[in-house]
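To whoever is on call:

I kicked off a structure prediction for a single chain this morning and the downstream step that reads the tokens threw a length-mismatch warning. I double-checked the sequence; it's 153 residues and nothing unusual in it as far as I can see. Pasting both halves so you can look.
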Amino acid sequence: MLRTPPTPEMITQWQKTYAKYKDILQPNRKNGQELINYLKSNYTLIPFHDKRADEVIISNVMDNEPLREKLPDGKEPQPVTFYLERNGKKVFIGIDLSSGMYQIEDDEDLWDELCAYQGLDSYDLKNCYCVYEYISCLTKSGQLNEVIRSFEI
């Protein structure tokens, strides 16, 4: 997850990673429901019903063109929010079922885990930052070689 303005060095690294993997990777992006199913199979989620939290998820999709473009034709965002107790803290999770956008507060490792699990769509595969982030998250989780092999089969 990008937390600071990119430097020229960062962009160069993104471009190198993109060049290395762009012809290997294939679309494999999971949708919002698949993310929820993954989380439920690995964690105990506490549903969080809050209109303001839902509005934040909707706004994150609608105010961000690349995320808005992931909405299927005629679909509006469908936010689902949870809390998760992890490492002694309460972690907020928001997922849009329509676009697959997710938001994690206070747990960068969980964000990276979901990034590695979700994969990329054909649009993301044309973006050097998205490819870099995905490869970085796969590397952190020890899944890079396994995922690369799955594309070679």
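Update from on-call: the warning came from a stale cache, not from the record. Cleared it. Sanity check on the structure: The CA atoms of residues 50 and 82 lie 10 Å apart.
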